[in-house]
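A student in our group prepared the protein record below, which I am reviewing. Here is the record exactly as it was handed to me.
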Amino acid sequence: MLAKLVQAGMNVMRLNFSHGDYDEHGARIQNIREVSKELGKKVAVLLDTKGPEIRTMSLEDGDVLLEARPN
């Protein structure tokens, strides 16, 4: 299916990081790289995060409050 999309003109693959995990996204990136190489066509990968938010794993010492400094 990816090959058909690339042959039809797809030149960017968007990954929505709000869904799935890093292993799934890594596999998708690997798949598009393989198809891109096989077809000799460049395909960009767009990583779409939810927006202006900070994503972290659980912190060892619990939550941390971040505050902006006044200008």
